[in-house]
Each structure stands twice: as structure tokens, then as C-alpha cells.
Prior knowledge:
Elements: H1 4-14, H2 23-36, E1 40-46, E2 50-57, E3 63-65, H3 70-77, E4 81-83, H4 96-99, E5 106-113, E6 119-127, H5 135-153, H6 162-168, E7 179-186, E8 194-201, E9 204-212, H7 216-231, H8 238-253, E10 260-268, E11 273-279, E12 284-287, E13 293-295, E14 314-317, E15 323-327, H9 340-350, H10 353-366, E16 373-380
Antiparallel strand pairs: 1-2, 1-6, 2-3, 4-5, 5-6, 7-16, 8-9, 9-10, 10-11, 11-14, 12-13, 12-15, 15-16
Helix pairs in contact: 2-5, 6-7, 7-8, 9-10
Amino acid sequence: MFDDEKRQRAIEKLGVLDTPPDARVDRVTRLAQELFDVPMVSVTLIDRDRQWRKSQIGLGGNEAPREGAFCDVTVRAGDTLVVEDASTDATFADNPFVVGDPHLRFYAGHPLAAPGGEHFGTLCILDTRPRTLDGRQIDLLRELAGWVQAELTDVHELDDASLVQQSLMSARRPDVPGYTLAASATPAGQLMGDVYDWYVHDGRLRVTLADVMGKGAGAAIIAAEVRASLRTAPGRPLGHAVSEVEKMLEEDIGGSNIFVTAVHAEIDLATGALSFVDAGHGLAFVLRADGRWEFLESTGLPLGMGFDEVRDPARAHLDVGDSYLVCSDGLLDVLDPDDPYGHVYRVLTSLDPEGAVAEAARLAKATRAPDDVTVVVVRRDR
């Protein structure tokens, strides 16, 4: 039987109501919108008399009445709720969110659980037209909700893992004539869930940045595994290398709601040809010598979600004076919120890559960034 007082105590203990936006949670809402092609997405938390949105797209605000909330029904049921056409559904046809703004027709939500098992909110996708979901899409919604749940509950414990942390430190910077390489990694706590790596093989520079959902020793260990796997057999094609990491994660941590976003890239040092595989990361760019940004976008799913993604590389090119930049989402927390790309451009053009990544580390420490901040820059000089 649903116990609303127990739910309320659980959400208050979590301390997530009325907290500032979280870049990691916002990433999930953006990914859900892309994957399901819906106009509205929300991470909704149920309070006593309101539904409060930790993250939302298309709903126009962070708060609404609890009465009549689809998400309240989902939380009480404790399972995935899919409403294909609310206007013809006996439970929801007269709902104020159906007959009035935003005139919902489609709703699909999955509950979020506190460490004690109490359901306190949902990840939901919504539309103003009827829709259906197949079995794979429902599984995907559940996986994304598990990602959000782990971010909000943050139940990872911090162990004495100094040896693991050392394994995350990248090997010596490669000596690459004609290119300037720089990187920095600043942990939010004692251990990092970010990892970067770079090495040269057969005239090509491979550059990796991976970001494990979560914090603490668990995230650090998985990050070390990802780095080690990508280092094995360095001549493998990019797509094969990433697929094998995914297989490793599925075998080792499948079903644990731990996911990894990553960009694995390769630069032909002679020509500047750039190939990359983006697994749900979406934070890789080329800054052209004339100041233009080229976003190396991808809608690939994160690693460890249990789906057979085809990891085909995309391509770009580095001309002389261009810089390839990849970062973890922690960098977004320390940039000028009104002009983040301009901020990066000013730093990169006023300082060399080494100075730019040092500035990122300085900002991370000065602002006590809530997440790991990792930045890798590769500039083609000739």
C-alpha cells in the first residue's frame, strides 16, 4: 500500500527539492527528448501539494499543482505508466492538464526510488498528440530513469581508493610534431569519475574522454576499466573499440544503472582527418582558426545501457590553426553562463592550450565545482 508520509520523509531526506539545476540530470532530459522526439520532458519530484521539476524541457516552469498530476499516479503505482491518448482514457480524459494547458495527449513516465525504496518522482516524456511506445522504447525510458535516480540519490560510497585514482591519471603526453596537446582533470572530491587518455599509434593520435555517471570509488573503478579497455589492442577500428568497451560494461555491471558517456577520437597526424565515436557525450567540438565553432554532435546512447548500438564513426577535419576540444560536463558549471562558448574562445585565443586547460582547473577549484572538470585540447599548428 502506498504510504505518502513515508514518501515525503524520503524526499525531504534526499534534500533535492528546490535545488539548482544539475548538468548531469539536464543531460538526461536532453537525451530523452532527442531519442523519443517529444516536445516535453520532465524529471518531476512529488512534494506535499505540488510537483516540482528538477529538470524540464517544454513545460514552461519548474512547478505545478500535485492534484491531477500524471506523475503522482505513476509514483503511487510504482511502475511505468504509458497513456497513449489521454483524451480517450477513462482515468485522464477530464484531467485539468488534458482539457486545459498544456492539452496533454501522450504521457509515459517511470518512477524514481529513494535508497529505502520509496518512490518520490518520475522521469516522464509528454506530447500534445497521441503516441505509442514499443517494448524497446519502454525499456529505454526505464534505463534513463535509472540514470536520473542514481544521480539524485547519490548513494555511492567513498572508499580508500588511491591506487584506483592513480590509474586514472593519463600517461605521459605524447610528443606529436606539428600539434600542441594539453589536458587537465580536476576532481570534485577525492576521486574522479572522469578519465582521459591519449596515445599515438601508426601515425594517428587517439584521444579519449569518458565520464562515468556518479561519484566515488565505484565511478573511479569503472573509469579505470574503460581506459584500460580502450588501451588494449590500440589498432582496432574506433567503432570496434567502443563496442568492446560496451560489451565489457554489460558483462561486468549490467543492470546496475551505471552508465558511461564517452568520446573516442582519432586524428590522422599527416592530414588532420578526424574520426570520432560519441557515446551519449555530446561535448566535443572543433574551434576553427577563424573563430567558428563546429559541434561534433551525436545522439548515440551512453555505454552500459544494454542496447545493441551501432557505433559508426563520424568525421571532421582539422586544418592548420584549428583546435579539437572535448570536455566533461563539469566544465559547464564554471563557464560564463551567458556566453560559455565565447568564454572558451577568449581563453583559448589569449592563452596557449596549456594555459587554457590550466585556467579550467583554476576555475574548477576557485568555484568549488560540484562535478569533475576535465578538458582536453589538441591544436594543429602546421
